[in-house]
Design a protein that fits this description.
The protein is of the alpha/beta class and 191 residues long. It has 6 helices and 6 strands. It is globular, with a radius of gyration of 16 Å. One of its GO terms (molecular function) is phosphatase activity.
Length: 191
């Protein structure tokens, strides 16, 4: 049997917000969240789980409201903990992808991000076998999961999808929790 997960990367956030965790969607992002609902409203989800960050919750809110579903949150699905804003330059991002143990002062390494996201994903897969699941997430978090299953997924792949807000990826897992198929379903490129 197959467990199907639809990963939804959040819609466009308001980067002027001083707090990462509470960062809301822009007005454009809010409108795009209704497009996510339109794209996925024909799917019968058995379970919905999200990062507790405001932008991930707001991105799937129109869908879960339309389908009358409940959202569970999991801290482990949160975005990579960042250092100072000045440390989030393209060169720093490349450095993090080149060395998964590297992290800026106050920030989180890609290894740490990947470990906690995979711990959460493994729990989801173990507890919801043969179900269809919605996971609302972040770009770096999802990319760390994709890298776990395919170590050739690197900075260039991350950089390709970093402006896809929102972004929907369908992934299928077998009973042994192996990724057996993945498909990019839909995205809006905000580049």
């Amino acid at each position: 049997m197959i467990t199907t997960i639809y990963f939804v990367r959040h819609a466009l956030p308001d980067y002027s917000s001083p707090e990462d965790r509470g960062m809301p969607l822009t007005e454009e992002g809010k409108l795009d969240s209704f497009s996510v609902a339109e794209k996925l409203s024909n799917i019968e989800f058995d379970y919905v789980i999200s990062s507790p960050y405001q932008r991930t919750l707001d991105t799937i809110r129109p869908l879960v409201d339309k389908l009358n579903l409940q959202i569970e949150t999991d801290e482990r699905l949160g975005e990579r903990k960042r250092g100072s804003a000045s440390d989030n330059t393209p060169d720093m991002v490349k450095k993090r992808w080149a060395d998964f143990d590297f992290h800026e002062v106050g920030g989180e390494s890609m290894n740490s991000l990947q470990s906690r996201n995979m711990e959460a994903l493994n729990d989801i897969l173990a507890n919801h076998q043969d179900q269809t699941i919605l996971v609302s997430t972040h770009g770096a978090a999802l990319s760390s999961i994709l890298n776990y299953y395919d170590p050739t997924f690197d900075y260039e792949d991350f950089n390709r999808i970093r402006c896809f807000t929102p972004y929907i990826l369908k992934a299928e897992f077998d009973k042994s929790m192996n990724l057996v198929a993945k498909e990019e379903i839909w995205w809006i490129d905000k580049n």
